[in-house]
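Just wondering, does anyone understand what follows?

——
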Amino acid sequence: MIKKQENRIPSISLKSFLTAVTFILFAALTIWWIMLLFLGNEEQNLIWAASYQAVALWGGISGLFIISRLWGGLKSVMGRAITYFSLGLLFQVFGQSVFSFYNITLHIQIPYPSFADIGFFGSIPFYIYGTVLLGKASRISISLKSFRNKLQAIVIPLLLLVISYVSFLLDYQVDFSNKLRILLDFGYPIGQAIYVSIAILVYILSRNILGGIMKNKIILVLIALVVQYVADYNFLYQNLRGTWINGGYGDYIYLFSYFVMSLALVRLMGIFSENSEMS
């Protein structure tokens, strides 16, 4: 007889509550941002830019202390996957907080690279490992045994790297006096190409898992990672050309990525049935 594992099946009310708060935060910050487009000034834009990390903070804390624990925390594969995605969000919060501290408290333009990149760049390995664990939790073998899987695993990251190189790094001027900047300029697109590629591969291979249930859940994680990729790419692109504006459309892309990832974590609450074995 299989023992019932009630702690892994979230209540509908809890899931609804987490979803509602996520939507309310996103909607409120979106309305605020739209209003600032017409009525805002630079100081108000800075305040908004310092505030929208609330969505990432909410998603990270909810995922780390509520959702992952429903799956047994670090004792289960799904629990670990949610934990690492949550830590990725919280690292984004750290980067955002440092960024805002420079702008609002110190009243200076934050340099690049800076301590903020500890959070922004630091989220990349967490997202990579979280995506790998998500594939494992989906009972997908990413062992590349078939030619088709090998082809997908090679083509997807190469395509993303080519897109990043052509649109961003093609005319890149290497300044060896700032080696850390070179590392980040190349590390951001490469690291993000890795986690987006893994997510796409997991999505493709999950089409027949549990009647497609996993596919429907993973697509939201995939969208979140792609939007995060776009947000960071856009920041690097604008920062290189001196066109970044605090509280502009670039910041809103970050807000949307935090929203989708937070929503994805909530949707990962109830994938498997009570009889699922997570190890």
Remarks:
- Residues 8-170+177-270 form one domain.
- Confidence is low (pLDDT under 50) at residues 1-6, 272-279.
- Residues 217 and 268 are 7 Å apart (CA to CA).
- The first helix runs from residue 12 to 39.
